[in-house]
Amino acid sequence: MKKTSRGSNTVNVKIIISLIVAFVMWIYVIGDQDPKNSQRYNNIDVKIRNEQVLEDKGLVLANVLETSVDITISGRTSVLYNLPWRNFSAYVDLSSVTEKGSYELSVAIQGIPDTVDLENVSPATITVEIDRITQQNREIQVDFVGELPQGLQLTDHTVNPGTVVVEGGENVLARIQKVGGTIDMSEREEGFSEVLTLRAYDDQGQEVTGITLDPAEVTVTAAIGNNYLLPVEAIVTGTPAEGFQIKEIQMTPANVAIISQGPTPVEKIETEPINIEGIQEDAEVTAKLIIPNGLISASDLETVQIKILVEPIETREFSVSTLEYRNRPEGLEVASSQGEQNVVVQLSGGKSIIQALGQNQIQLYVDLTDAVVGENQVTLQMDELEGITLEELEPTQWRVVLEEAPEEVEEE
């Protein structure tokens, strides 16, 4: 048997010990010169993956409660120093979502190399709200703002098409108060057609986003006309009870603003017929306005309040001593008349009118158009008085004697 020399064993032991010492020294140097460290990266945007999967299931992403995360990684200082951190990305995957509701999804981080460790993600989950996709048909509302030039007014407008299909999450659509837009009328002087981009608004007037509108635009056609202020005339039928008459007809309003595309074809606006048959006391009625074709009520006024004032009829007698000779033939003059006899005049009318009537308002006359030289019997007449009826004149005939007027002598 061959024996190993004692000196050879000693050499081997020394080599092994040297290797161990070298390794320990290497570990020490590496740890001291390139230590392990941690690094934090903030505000990494969270992307959404597989959103198309939601659409295939009739769902839609309503909102994301967190949009970024912070991460902490650890590794050797030299590795961290040269780390391509711009390649880091974060995402949540929606492929597991199956129905409407609120979900907390884990945040996954990409771009972390194998030479470092991902220690922390904050927040580790992201809350997403999932809504069910639905559709609604909505009427389009157009708001006209701004003042037209004086004397002009919007008479009519049409929206083509008049409805829009709104698509989006159920919760979002529930917030929509109206769909439409605004058109400025300032300085417009004639009708127009204009393309209007549609938007949806909530009850606070804030625009609602995250929806689709079909169509996204509509055509608004507006007509502008002239504005006229016309008096209202009450049309009455029938007669009051015997011994009564209409004192006054009051209307509220007395005038109505009317819009016409051109010059107005009428000078007044009439009411529907009001039956006053047998009336003997004041009455108040609501009457519909009859707006002729082609005209529009500027204030959408359709009716007026009419107050009918009734009063009793009274008869009063006057004694009149003066009269006029009208249409005296040329070359003739009145030689004499019936004398100093007064004429008894009997008049009737509403109480308020007849009591306010003065004798000086009564004008009697005879018409001498057909009179000749000599004695003439002519009929007594009276000028008409508004609201007054002539019941009787006594006498009815008047004697007038005419003679030729003396010729005027020219002075030399």
From TrEMBL:
The chain crosses the membrane at residues 12-31. Gene3D superfamilies: 2.170.120.30, YbbR-like domain. Keywords: Membrane, Transmembrane, Transmembrane helix. The keyword Transcription regulation does not apply. It comes from the Bacteria. Pfam families: YbbR. The keyword Transmembrane helix applies. This is YbbR domain-containing protein. It comes from Alkalibacter rhizosphaerae.
